[in-house]
Amino acid sequence: MSGFRSAFPMLVCDDLPRSLEFYRDALGFTPDYRFPEEGDPVFVAVSLPDGSRLGLGQVASDGLGVHGRLQRPTSGHRFELCVYHDDVDAVVAELAGLGHPVLLEPSDTPWGERVAFIADPDGNPVMITQEAAR
């Protein structure tokens, strides 16, 4: 199969305004699309300066997506995001100071990166990664 050009992960959010605030204000994503254009949005796309994009959608009132399946699993986390930062220790301390739960304090990995995990407003793990020094 060929023809795929890019991927666009989408998160289902229990509280879209709260999740948008987290991804925009705490992680630095910029909103670049919203639906509907007027009134309270049910979907917002956000991006980082490198072109990475993420979709944030309010969970449907009946819990079903447009595909007709449940938007929430019965157990476990639904999503895990990895974002890169130049200073894992500093940004995790800043995020913790803002009240975002730290799931794993910064630590060095066997493959050379420094990583930490925080939770987004829906409890999804977000891995903050600092690339290995070259």
UniProtKB/TrEMBL annotation:
Gene3D superfamilies: 2,3-Dihydroxybiphenyl 1,2-Dioxygenase, domain 1. PROSITE patterns: VOC. InterPro entries: Glyas_Bleomycin-R_OHBP_Dase (IPR029068), Glyas_Fos-R_dOase_dom (IPR004360), VOC_core (IPR037523). It comes from the Bacteria. It holds the Pfam family Glyoxalase. Residues 5-131 form the VOC domain. This is VOC family protein. It comes from Saccharothrix mutabilis subsp. mutabilis. The lineage of its organism: Bacteria, Bacillati, Actinomycetota, Actinomycetes, Pseudonocardiales.
